[in-house]
Each structure stands twice: as structure tokens, then as C-alpha cells.
Amino acid sequence: MPVDYADPAGGTTSIALRRLEASVPKERIGSLFINPGGPGGSGIDFVSEAPSFFGDAVRERYDVIGFDPRGMGESDAVDCLSDADLDAAYAADPTPDTAAERAAYRRAPAERNRRCLARGGVLAANMGSESVARDLDILRSAVGDERLNYYGVSYGTMIGAVYADFFTSRVGLMVLDSAVLPDALGEEEPTQEEVDAAARAWAYDFDDVVDDFATDCGSSIECPLGKDTDAVTRTLVEFLDELDRRPLASGHESLPLLTEGWASTAIGFGLQDPSSWPALVDALDLAINEDDGEDLAWFAMVVTERDEDGTYPATTFGRSHLLVSCADWPPTPWDSVVPSRDVLDNHPLWARIEPPGPDPCEGWTGTLRETLLVGADVATPVLVIGNEDDRTTPIEDTEALAGEIVRSRLVTVSTEGHGAYGTGNDCADDVVEDYLGRFLAPEDEYTCGS
């Protein structure tokens, strides 16, 4: 592929693919390209899960093809963020107290992006979804398909939506599952009242997760972090504030101290994954009640994909997210706004785990997405599906994307979690497999029960 589509003669980069052939060759109708999101998630790894993830109606009729997006995984790797850069990002003090700390906090993103682009060169500057969509069209042609059949989940919907906008006449069957809304139109400078209203909404959503976490913590035994949500919140706030003053020894040679930054990273990642909550509670119990930071430091390393020797894999989310996000989301006046003090004080744990801070893309000089409002008049209905209670990609975004693609079919699944297909809802599975395997599109605004 051209590294820079604006300069197609200026150098190339290679994209790695893996194909799982159709299980019934005589029934084969073409290829199904898949993307697991991320951004930057490995489609090659996704293909290894395809035999159990996709039903027979799909597996029998398609060669399932995954690809590692440009710069990631087994594709030509982009060299951008170092292990030290990632450590610094995760360890950053979320509550800078002094003028010097606050100044360093504000400078960090621009300095990191300058180093990243200098190290990664032209490829680092061209990692956005518009380039990936163009890559995908070349891949479609390379396997001999006239139209692209595609399943994308989470950030994979962004790639699919951009592709549909760029190459509308080449869209075949497309499933966009749990959508990221691509809209990025210019916005006016928000008022402080608007900033505070938005911050309260984000904080209340965060508080709801903490409430579920506290309830789960005490569901079988007395929660060691507190008897209810308020008590758990106070415990965690006091713990993080104490770490800011006095980090705990961790016992790990490459990460000797459990700091406030590393602890807030562990808690923030852990809260997003309910299956990790028992391990998170145990690690917090040891750190808070026994001054033993080893397990929580280990938890932080696991959720950030950091090896005990201090290295990160080439495909880690931390490496891919910055480059793709900065290319895909042009600067807006909202990037560095700060809520009023009373909002932060009324939501103290949110202010420490997801603190409003400087724009992480400050100083970005790579490419910026040009198509800021995606839409397409696709001949074959695009299936847009999502869970009603999805805290990662809200159903409102899935609904909005469906409204921007002409003749799309919106399906709402009355359940929680991220990702509608392949996550245990028989109705959602039947809808997707009928669509891809039997060419049966559901009625628009169809609802699957729990």
C-alpha cells in the first residue's frame, strides 16, 4: 500500500492478512473481511477465533479474512511510542498539585507527539481510518471480490462507515456492530455551563459503574473496600490521595513503586471489565488494608499489556490508539476544557480516574481526517446493530450512524455489554447470520429481546 495516499509514489507499506477458507467450498460466495476494533486491533488474531465466533451460515459461505491495520501487528510495524513513553503516560500524576507538576502535565502530550512523529516518520503520520479504508479497498480487489463484504465491531465500524462513504458502489453485505459515530463537525467554543453539564453526564455514567462494582464486591461477602458505594468511593479516593503522598513498594523490579498514576490506571481499566472485578478487589484489599502494592501493580501491568520486564507488545492498544485517534479526530474547542471545581469535588473518584486534562493530541502534525460527516447511499441494506446498554459505544451512536446510511437496517438488542453478535444473544446471532449467510435483512428498527 502507499504509505501516504496523497503521495502514492512516495513509498509503500505492507499489510498482513490471514484467510480462513469457507468450510463448504461449493457453497462459497466470496470473502468476508473482519475487523475487531481497537483502534488497531489485530484482524489476524480475530481470524483465529472465527471458527467459534461465526456461525455455520457464515463459515460455510465465506472465506473469512482478517488483516492487521497499517503499522500494527504483523503488518509493517510503525515505530512511534517507546516503552518509556507508555510508562510515562500510564504513570502520569492525575492530580498535579504544584505549579511545576501542572506545567509538566500540560507539556507532556505535545512532547510525546513530537517524539512519536520524529521516530515513526511518514507511516506514523498516516495511520488514520481514511488510509485504512483505502487499504481495505485494495485488499478487496486483491482477493478478486467485486464488492466488499464486511463485519466490523466497535472501532471497526469506523473503518466500515468510512469505506462506505468512499466506495459506496463497492459495498456488498456490511455489518456494523456497536458503532463509533464518525461525526466530527466543527463545534463552537462551549460555555462553562455546557462544559459542566457534559462533565456531570460523564461523571454520572462513571458513578453508575462504580455503583455496580461496589454492589458486586459485596454480593457474596462483606466488601473489604466499604459497605456501600459511598464508602467504597471514599476508600478509593483516600487511597489514591495517600499514594500521591507516599507510593507503595510493589516488589516488581521494572516497576518498583505503585504510584497514584499506576493505581488509577489499574482501577480505570479494571472498572471497564466486570469479569476482572474479583481480582481488582483482591488487589485493592491488599494495597489498602495491608500496604502491599504487589498485586495491584501486577494488575496494572496486565491491563496495559506491560510485561514484567517493562516492555510492551508491538500491537498494544496504547501504541495504536494515539496515532489513529489523533488522525481521526480533528481538534475541537472541547479538547482541553476543564469543569468547574464543584463538579470535580462532587465526583471525586471520577476526577482522579478519568480526570479532565490536556488534549492528548496537542502538537499533532500528522494527517487529519477530511470526511467529518460520513454518509452513504448503499444499494444493499447495511445492518447496524448494537446493545441497548453498552457503556463503551452507547446505543445512541449506533442509532445515529444507522440514520446516516441510506436504507440501513437498525437492530437494537435488549441487553448490556459491548458487541451484539457472538456474545450470547441468540436473536442477535440469528439476525447477523440470516443477513450474511441467507441474504435476509431484518425490518428497520427491529428489537431483539434479552
Describe the secondary-structure layout.
Blueprint: E1 17-20, E2 30-35, H1 43-53, H2 56-59, E3 62-67, H3 83-91, H4 99-124, H5 129-142, E4 148-153, H6 156-166, E5 171-177, H7 192-217, H8 229-245, E6 248-252, E7 255-258, H9 260-271, H10 277-290, H11 294-303, H12 317-328, H13 341-346, H14 348-353, E8 376-377, E9 383-389, H15 395-404, E10 405-406, E11 409-416, H16 426-438, E12 446-448
Q: Could you explain how this protein is built, in words?
A:
- α5 packs across α6, α9 crosses α11 and α10 runs antiparallel to α11.
- This protein is globular.
- The chain contains 16 helices and 12 strands.
- The mean pLDDT is 94.
- The chain is α/β, with parallel strands linked by helices.
- The protein has 2 domains: 185 residues, Rossmann fold; 205 residues, no CATH class.
- Helix content is 45%, strand content 13%.
- The two termini are 43 Å apart.
- The chain has an 8-stranded mixed beta sheet with strand order 1-3-2-4-5-9-11-12, sandwiched between helices.
Tell me briefly what this model is.
With 450 residues, the chain is α/β, with parallel strands linked by helices. It has 16 helices and twelve strands.
